[in-house]
Amino acid sequence: MAIPTLPVVTADTPRKAPSRVRPFDNALWATLGISLAGVAITLGPIIYLILGGFRSQGDLASNPTGLPDPFLWQNYWNILSQGLFWRQLANSTFVAVATTAGVVLFGTMAAYPLARYSFKGRQALFVVFTTGLMFPLTVAVLPLYLLLRDMGISGLWGLIIPQIAFAIPVTVIIMRPFLVALPDELEEAAFMDGVSRIGFFFRMVIPLARPAMVTVGVLAFIGSWNAYLLPLLLLTGDPTGMTLPLGVTTFQGQYSSATTMIMAYTSLAMIPALVFFLMMERRIVDGLTGAVKG
Amino acid sequence: MKTLEASGAGKGPAVGAKAPAGGPRTVNPVTSHTRKHTTRKWLEIAVFVTPALALFLTFVVYPVIAAARYSMYKWNGVKQFSEAEFIGFENYARALFGGTNPDTKDAFTTAYSEPFWTALSHNFAIIGLSMAIQLPLALLVALALNRKFKGRTFVRVVIFAPYVLSEVIAGVMWLIILDPNGIATQMTRAIGLTPPAGGWFEDLSWGFWTVFFVITWKYIGLAIILFLAGLSGVPEDLQEAAAIDGANWWQIQWRINIPLIGPTIRIWAFLSIIGSIQLFDMVWVLNRGGTTDQYSTIASYMMQIGFFRSDWGYGSAIAVIMFIISFIIALAYMAAVLRRDNANRMQKAR
């Protein structure tokens, strides 16, 4: 090897033939150290929160770093045996599922002609949708609240409809190149068999575009599940009508002295999102990195 | 079937506008009158596009335009908008420079401009700190994790997990941990340090840093995952060639990996800046409903005054200012960064 003759060798251990050996094994300790630190900082607070739900109030004050002693099921049991948590879980689920379905269906439908028809104004229409990325919910939220009030849309539908609307731009932008890439032969063959464009869309495009639709749907689902601003404005009053994030802050306000109850409630509210994340981790990462690259 | 291929080209240069309905035409000669086809084509397009477009125009575009309109009025949202008083740019002036109180109408006051600038300065402080702290930290972690080792997938999944938790749940969790009598205080004492006197969030000199720490905990996973995705696209040959030429680990990161994921870093920076301008949920929860402006942001200030104090005109003006800031940042980003990336691409092509 030429390495010893080069004046620039700075590695602390002179490396022999690097053919099979991976370079920089001396950096492995750094990798492991950073991994451990990262995992500890991320999981530590979450584990503390979940364990805290098993504590008594006195135990939390006197022994916060140890394991719960006594180990109480009571906090979790109180929450799970009453309807409030389940109602809020159902509300969040309903809103997220309806939002996702609407976003995926309407977004894909809008992307289809933009991808596979050519018509006057197509580019302009696409630009109209992409400008939507410029308008965040925060900017529009006050007039949106008034609009929903005037239209008489309240409760959970008041979340679902605007959430679909605000997710459409990014959906169209992600779906369009995907639909452009579908092979023309499929379309030709389908039309030969007498299938209409609309029939082709529902029978061929939707099944074939499923990977992209899952990506878009997962992002919409997470966005809806975590939404706070609109629920804060729309779902005032009755806690049984709230979604989980708003439910958690309301619960926190009501039981401000019972910290371990809040810990149990927050832990339970966290679990669905974590389970969904573990199931969909690959999709979420692909979706985010894809959306960023696209 | 040439027409179909052309119509499927999507982004390609303009295709004959009438061409694409060719599919059914060749299949079904009975209905092959061109006019019927054009009508049918437009009908189909309408069926596909209308639901999305109607929702988008009604619930996204209209409210944004309405915000611009309301911002010119003094309006409390209770009485009819037609009875609201038109005051031109007074709401903007009140936020940016101070002005007369619209209710008392007498003395000049900075009671509106001061909290506005405080809030805006917090947004920009978060942007600055993200670039100065989150970026190098995320880069370091991504570079360290960019290799094969046992448990790599596990580590990546865990580090990314906070990003999918809701800001509210993460916020409540940290409120409990960083309670003045909570575990963070006790652990700090246990290792012999003094926790902030007024409490982690409440202390005037610490509060903002605590909020920034929580934001970092929640969002750094996205940066790491994006950088890792970028790094996985860097060809290994390059690194091996550099290693053979005697480059050390730092040299390889600095000269090869980091420049090559430049576009990813810039996109993250853009997302982070826009997100920082619109930051709301987390500060609202950590600030217990925006009751103090110790770490307010423009979004929380807008909600506090616009919605909870029913000053809709003023709140809308804040919203428009927020939009203009985001818009300018987006334009600047596109102009500067895209030009640079394109220039690089041209260079490579040559």
Order of helices and strands of chain A: HHHHHHHHHHHHH
Based on secondary structure, the structural category of chain A is: mainly alpha
CATH topology of the largest domain in chain B: MetI-like fold
Distance between the termini of chain A: 43 Å
Q: How many β-strand stretches of chain A?
A: 0
Order of helices and strands of chain B: HHHEEHEEHHHHHHHHHHH
- Average pLDDT across residues of chain B? 82
Number of helices of chain B: 15
How large is the radius of gyration of chain B? 27 Å
Share of helical residues of chain A: over 70%
* N-to-C span of chain B: 36 Å
Largest sheet of chain B: 2 strands, antiparallel
Topology, number of strands of chain B: 4
Counting H and I runs of at least 4 residues, what is the number of helices of chain A?
13
What does this structure look like?
The complex is a heterodimer of chains A (about 290) and B (about 350). Chain A is mainly α. Chain A has helices at about 30-50, 55-60, 75-80, 85-115, 120-130, 135-150, 155-180, 185-190, 195-210, 210-225, 230-235, 245-255, 260-294. Chain B has about 350 residues and is mainly α. Chain B folds into two domains: about 1-30, no CATH class; about 115-350, MetI-like fold (Orthogonal Bundle). In chain B, helix 12 runs antiparallel to helix 15 (about 310-350). Chain B is globular. At the A-B interface, helix 1, helix 4, helix 5, helix 6 and helix 7 of A face helix 1, helix 2, helix 3, helix 5 and helix 6 of B.
